[in-house]
């Protein structure tokens, strides 16, 4: 009876995931200027030809990596909301403050996002992904705010304001973690949520 092979060939989805993870690391370390097919192949430990087998060039690979990072962040937010239980305000707090903890509050993630942001003005596909991501974040915020009783006319502006607040606190927390803690960022965010959800109902 023939013995089974000592290894299994990587499945296509696993290989693609490896290449996307390698791209994220290269972008975080080198920026878009250093993100070449060769650099990513070296990072992933594969040949440049294999990168081309799975992705139609560096632009497609960067776009797929952006989508993957977006998905990772969305999963972390969803998990935080689910863990908060059924109380509407607890769910809103969890969604807003999840950005101040790993895996979202991360210097490496900041570096990767910075690389993506640098492409927004020069690549329509990245700009579209950026717009869709932020629209989805604001839409989720509007839904959570509505569950807390905020009237419909105020939802859009409140979601924009909270998004800007979260982005600013997240950015400073990643850049200068010694300036304030994640708990302090959460306290600041919750105080703004208190003001928004307790007035003008």
From TrEMBL:
UniProt xrefs under PROSITE patterns: HTH_TETR_2
Residues annotated to bind DNA: 36-55
Record domain HTH tetR-type: where: 13-73
GO MF terms held by the record: DNA-binding transcription factor activity; transcription cis-regulatory region binding
Keyword Transcription regulation annotated: yes
Keyword DNA-binding: yes
InterPro entries: BetI_C (IPR039538), Homeodomain-like_sf (IPR009057), HTH-type_TetR-like_transc_reg (IPR050109), HTH_TetR (IPR001647), Tet_transcr_reg_TetR-rel_C_sf (IPR036271)
Domain of life: Bacteria
PANTHER family (alphabetical): HTH-TYPE TRANSCRIPTIONAL REGULATOR RUTR (PTHR30055), TRANSCRIPTIONAL REGULATOR-RELATED (PTHR30055:SF228)
Protein name as it appears in the record: TetR family transcriptional regulator
Native species: Novosphingobium arvoryzae
Keyword line: DNA-binding, Repressor, Transcription, Transcription regulation
């Amino acid at each position: 009876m023939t013995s089974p092979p000592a290894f299994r060939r990587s499945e296509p989805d696993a290989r693609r995931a490896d290449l996307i993870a390698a791209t994220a690391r290269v972008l975080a370390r080198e920026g878009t200027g250093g993100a070449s097919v060769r650099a990513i192949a070296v990072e992933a430990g594969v040949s440049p030809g294999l990168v081309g087998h799975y992705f139609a060039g560096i632009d497609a690979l960067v776009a797929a990596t952006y989508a993957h990072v977006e998905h990772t962040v969305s999963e972390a937010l969803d998990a935080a909301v689910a863990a908060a239980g059924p109380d509407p305000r607890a769910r809103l707090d969890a969604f807003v403050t999840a950005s101040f903890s790993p895996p979202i509050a991360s210097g490496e993630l900041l570096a990767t996002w910075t690389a993506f942001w640098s492409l927004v003005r020069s690549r329509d596909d990245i700009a579209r992904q950026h717009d869709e991501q932020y629209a989805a974040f604001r839409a989720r915020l509007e839904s959570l705010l509505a569950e807390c009783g905020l009237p419909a006319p105020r939802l859009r502006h409140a979601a924009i304001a909270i998004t800007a607040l979260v982005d600013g606190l997240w950015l400073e927390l990643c850049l200068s973690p010694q300036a304030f803690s994640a708990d302090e960022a959460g306290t600041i965010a919750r105080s703004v949520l208190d003001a928004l959800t307790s007035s003008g109902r």
